[in-house]
């Protein structure tokens, strides 16, 4: 039996692409409070089922597949450039294949403008008209308007005409950045990309017995299963070790692990994998905000996904990637790392930012531990001292020293030099992850 929240989401998903929705409309249609409707619409926005646009409202958009995440909708373009929709509102759900900057003669401009394009241009009314007739949307820069005829044509063809106060160069930069951010998101695997859905998941009810567990385990050999109520709400987990020495007639709710660790669809696969290893669990149940079981992931699922991701081409670079790219390992036995401070890693004063500096030390420490064959580690806490400011384009030498090491924790000290001058020191504690 579905909850009110799920029913609203199913209703929104059933709406035709391009339909406008509102909190009041959903509340009236589904006979729920406006608060419940608002929360469901926000969840639909997170799932990319709808998009909220100022001066337009919330509209149903086509849910984009992960592999096509770099394709932005015109609705998202409106948000990015803080634009105003002059016409063609019914086409905001459509995606653009490319954008064209109209800084050329009209005939030359039209050679590059085709269906699915977005023409970025100033107050050139003829260019607006020709682009619409070619099947392209139009983004007018400088806060200019277009003709009434062009607005009517946009409505007829369902191709948005958007106006923004930004100049052409700024708009192109903003859209490029949005596509770049989407590409970085594409590289980060989420649980929603790999989980086994509930339809394919084996689970037990609270009224099932240990005998039922053995029967299911013989059939599937999974070794662990979620325990759910009649409404599929997760209340526990049961594994082979929980049933050792128990009577076959006992119900599973007597031996299950209550309030089990669970994950959500938006948790990253890497984060889930670390947690599963750290907590020593082989199967992680995935639930929604109401605690309803959505599916499961296993350690094998995580390993396969991460191995597959490493074989994919890298599209976008995060700050971590930029820091790693500037690291050069010098020492053969004792690790010594040379590092160049690039302009992207500095703060408003031109000195290395705190975030880039802590990332550098974490990476150097992790590398030093791997060199000692201690596997993966995560930084638990750190204390940093800047003795002298570290300016951009400085070449740093980072020397880590392992002070103490146990089975689960490592204490490490760092000396940071610019040429021969000591510019910083740090103390860090790492948690070692079990293999």
TrEMBL record:
PROSITE patterns: CBS
Entry keyword set: CBS domain
Superkingdom: Bacteria
InterPro entries, A to Z: CBS_dom, CBS_dom_sf, Diverse_CBS-Domain, DRTGG, HotDog_dom_sf, Ser_kin/Pase_Hpr-like_N_sf, Thioestr_dom, WH-like_DNA-bd_sf
One Pfam family here: 4HBT
Domain CBS: 256-318
PANTHER family: CBS DOMAIN-CONTAINING PROTEIN, CBS DOMAIN-CONTAINING PROTEIN CBSX3, MITOCHONDRIAL
Record protein name field: CBS domain-containing protein
Species this chain originates from: Ureibacillus sinduriensis BLB-1 = JCM 15800
Source taxonomy: Bacteria, Bacillati, Bacillota, Bacilli, Bacillales
